[in-house]
Amino acid sequence: MESTILIFLIFILVLSIFLGFEIISKVPSLLHTPLMSGSNAISGVTVVGALIAAGLAKGVGDNDVAAILGGIAIFLAMINVVGGYFVTDRMLNMFKKKK
Fold first, then answer.
1. Given 3-state DSSP classes, what are the helix, strand and coil percentages for the chain, each rounded to the nearest 5?
2. Angle subtended by helix axes 64-94 and 32-59, to nearest 10
């Protein structure tokens, strides 16, 4: 039973990778800045979810492994958010008129 679930989850992962690649490759370059801003908002939701997961893991049963994984998830999501905002800012500066 568990091997069936694992195969199903791997199938969903591979399918989402191919689908994401196809969708992103079809986006015109003019829309990359709004798309980056939208993905930053999604990463912000990921940070909130990781905070909740880390807090619940530490509060219920003192599960140290889950708290450590939650902390790692917070760290990685924050790297994604901060890096996304730097890239968005750099892209928006490309559209400003030069003096």
1. 85, 0, 15
2. 160
